[in-house]
Amino acid sequence: MPNGKHAQATVIKEKIWTKDFALICMANFFIFLGFQMTLPTIPLFVQHLGGSDQLIGIITGIFTFSALLFRPYAGHALESKGRQFVYMTGLGIFVLSVGSYSIIAGIGFLILMRMVQGIGWGLSTTATGTIATDLIPPSRRGEGMGYFGLSGNLALAFGPALGLTLAGTLTFSQLFLICAALGLVAFLLSSQIHYKKVEQSEHKATTVKFDIFEKSAIKPATLLFFITVTFGGIASFLPLYTAEKGMAGIEIYFLVYALFLMFSRTFAGRLYDRKGHIAVFLPGALMIFSAMLLLVWLPNTLILYTAAACYGLGFGSVQPALQAWAVDQAAANRKGMANATFFAFFDLGVGIGAMTFGIIASSFGYSYIYLTAAGSVLVAILIYLTLLIKNR
Fold it and tell me: Domain locations in the chain?
């Protein structure tokens, strides 16, 4: 029976769903739920405070640029100070900054605290992806990252709709206190995780040198940048765009988007593990491109929900595949920096998108946001095809 025992040991070794993996997924769910509730409501809050479309873009962008600036530090600290320090520090900053929104009465203080929130978000999201990577067997990394991504997707299924619903029934102060409380739940769950220990002897050279990105992650991160430009248009301006058109049901848009995002996670990760990014990226990017064109057109709510389904399928396929690609190519002691590089480009795409789209919305109207976003996806597709040709 040695072969049977060996096979059994292999199955145990390759297990994804451990107690710690479940805890990091639950913590990720609650912090993302708190974050997703603020995503469509911050633009409404800015309008409530008397801000313009351009100011909405700036306030969205400054958050992501703040996160971007701290991601290199987060990637370095993950390998020198440890996963727990970075993750729990980021969660703590997030809770305090979002809680402070409950007492904000002016744009200036909001901008300041959005920068602080960005720092917490940059630290925590860089750490959580690395922690999940530590806990997933390498041979099942695409599948495991897909499951991990589901925790954020579940939050996305409920967060925006819940935030918009509560914004219509509660004060903004009450809404933001609830969001902060959800972050606190994530903080408490994260304190129960057994984190990977950082071996100082292995990382002595790494702790001396401070760099800002992982070279092996640049290609997938660059593709992600052009894809996540679209996210700045969805998160910051879609509620305002549909309101201008007199359409109800923006809450359902986010629900449909999240459901199809989760559906794509059930197969995209395993497809990546078996056939690589070539089987996942192009179909996913084409779905996102289609979604943007549907939003340019947007004659009715049926097309709105169809765009949500296309965007969910596309983004749910592309994002975990690109993240697994970025991490797979990095050395064992550079996984944290690879995740930092990956999410830095994510932030850069969202931030540049939001700021650019604020100007476009003010000058040309909301529909031109999604035309520009479609162009950005097309650039990503062309870059990917160029990479494929060069590697042949």
Answer: 18-193+210-391
